[in-house]
Specification:
The protein is α/β, with parallel strands linked by helices and 298 residues long. The chain contains nine helices and nine strands. It has helices at residues 21-29, 72-86, 105-112, 130-143, 160-170, 188-203, 237-244, 249-266, 286-291, and strands at 7-15, 47-53, 56-62, 90-96, 118-123, 148-151, 213-221, 225-234, 269-278. A six-stranded mixed sheet has the order 2-3-1-4-5-6, sandwiched between helices. The N and C termini lie far apart (55 Å).
Length: 298
């Protein structure tokens, strides 16, 4: 009888913004861990999602999309993506059927040089027909000849199982890296801010969501409810006015949407209070970025 060995490893999900990385990660992990919206740059941090069974532990990590940094926050976001390249046991390089193949040659070069197995996942195949897909697969094969290609639709959960199966096969034999009952390395407060940020992204236009950060000031759990106080940080007074809206209507709507999601997430009644605060130019201030949990390079 063969001795069963425990398998464990880091499976890092990388790719350009908006290709469906967070949607895929949530399919793979089976919980709504990463926030998903149709706007690029929703995922600012690296988020781990952990799948445990008796004989294995898969540590998925979702990263912000690759982009060219033009302010400090973006620099920090990019460093999360680059570190995802170097510490993976398996790389899931996600692309979709709409993005141009040469969108990011520099990054592609790094993927080509990766020391670990790469699965090239072509997402959103619900949007195209079979012949178009076959052509796309051929083109990608030319670009990344070493990578195994799996087409999928994360949104309609099509072809997720083959990816999961292949990941398990590629996972190295190793003891677990985290407690076996861990679902994610992020604390509850992190999900509160992510859910609030998601609602801000959905509700407000243009630059507002990108100038916004959410901070949890109080998280008090009792037997039948959780009392949360959150502060929404913006860069300017004018943004504060927009967030709050006429007679506080906008903030109230966002608060209601966030509370509903929080109640689903924590499976408890939520009492949510939200305030808006101006921190001038926070995206360019190292101490602010550090306080929000971003890596600051210089
Ligand atoms: P990320 O920036 O790579 O993390 O992408 P997200 O997971 O946030 O998804 C970006 C957008 O693409 C969202 O509007 C998703 O609903 C959408 N999306 C994700 N997967 C699919 C898919 O398989 N098909 C289609 N049509 N849309 C998808
Ligand atoms: Mg994302």
């Amino acid at each position: 009888m063969a001795v069963q060995k425990h398998k464990s490893g880091f499976v890092n999900i990388i790719g350009n913004p908006n290709v469906g990385k967070s949607t895929l990660m949530n399919c793979l992990v089976g919980e709504r861990i990463s926030i998903i919206t149709s706007k690029a740059q929703t995922t600012r941090h690296r988020i781990l999602g952990i799948v445990n069974t008796e004989d294995m532990q898969i540590v998925y990590s979702d990263t912000p999309g690759v982009l060219h940094p033009n302010y400090k926050l973006q620099q920090s976001m990019l460093s999360f993506s680059q570190s995802a390249l170097s510490d993976a046991d398996v790389l899931l390089y996600v692309t979709d059927v709409v993005e141009k193949l040469d969108k990011n040659e520099e990054f592609l070069l790094k993927v080509r040089q990766a020391q670990c197995p790469v699965l090239l996942l072509i997402n959103k195949i619900d949007l195209i027909d079979q012949p178009t897909l076959e052509k796309l697969v051929e083109q990608w094969h030319g670009l990344l000849p070493e990578a195994e290609i799996i087409p999928l639709s994360a949104l309609s959960k099509f072809n997720i199982e083959p990816i999961r199966k292949r990941v398990v096969e590629l996972l190295p034999v190793s003891p677990p890296y985290f407690e076996k009952d861990a679902l994610t390395d992020r604390p509850a407060r992190f999900f509160v801010t992510e859910i609030i940020r998601e609602k801000i992204l959905l509700y407000y236009q243009k630059e507002i969501p990108y100038a916004t950060e959410a901070v949890v000031e109080l998280f008090e759990e009792s037997k039948d409810k959780i009392h949360i106080k959150a502060i929404i940080i913006v860069e300017r007074e004018t943004q504060k006015g927009i967030i709050i809206g006429h007679q506080g209507q906008a903030l109230k709507k966002v608060g209601t949407m966030a509370r509903k999601d929080l109640e689903l997430f924590f499976e408890k009644k939520i009492f949510l209070e939200m305030y808006v605060k101006v921190e001038k130019d926070w995206r360019n201030r190292d101490n602010m970025l550090k306080a929000f949990g971003y890596q600051v390079s210089d």
